[in-house]
Structures are given as C-alpha cells and as structure tokens.
Specification:
Layout: E1 2-4, E2 9-11, H1 14-20, H2 24-27, H3 37-40, H4 47-53, E3 59-65, E4 71-82, E5 88-97
Length: about 100
C-alpha cells in the first residue's frame, strides 16, 4: 500500500484486499489507523511516523482488522517515500499474513 504524508491510504493492491477481506474502496483515503487498533494507539506519533521510526523496511508484527472485525496477524514493513529535497512525504508499506 502507499500512504501519503498525512497518513492516509492512497493505494492498495489486490493482495492486501484479499488478506483483509475488505474492498479497496473501504480503505482508500482513510487514515492508516483504520487498518489496526495498534497503529491507532501509537502515542504522540502518527501511525505512519511510528512505523517509519523503527527504520526503513523493519518488519513489525501487528493485528489488522478484517471485514468482520476479526484481528488478523500481519507483519508490516514500511519504507519512506521522499520528495526531490529528500523530505519524507509518505511511505510504501508491505503487509504479509502470518
């Protein structure tokens, strides 16, 4: 998935849609925290900042919310997207079931 600098989901692929059992339309333009209560409870940092704080591509085990509200075990890793000046302007995240 691609997340913008404000922490909103900009793009998802069919693998994430299948993993969560949720349609893309339900995820797009929503805050990243809509995927997981754990991401929503990140203290003062935004969920995107919290993911990136661990370092580029570092995997984090979380539980994402499926269509029926079930907590699904997911490993999430993220890498920053940077603008032409090197400033972080979003991130690309990879979710794997498990």
């Amino acid at each position: 998935m691609v997340v913008d600098g404000e922490g909103r989901v900009e793009s998802v692929n069919s693998a994430l849609v299948a993993l969560l059992g949720r349609p893309a339309e339900e995820l797009l333009k929503q805050p990243l925290a809509v995927l997981s209560e754990e991401l929503a409870a990140g203290g003062t940092a935004s969920p995107a900042e919290a993911l990136l704080a661990a370092g580029p591509s570092r995997a984090r085990a979380i539980h994402c919310l499926g269509k029926d509200g079930a907590k699904l075990p997911v490993t999430l890793s993220a890498s920053p997207l940077r603008d032409k000046d090197g400033k972080t302007c979003g991130m690309v995240a990879l979710a794997r079931g498990g």
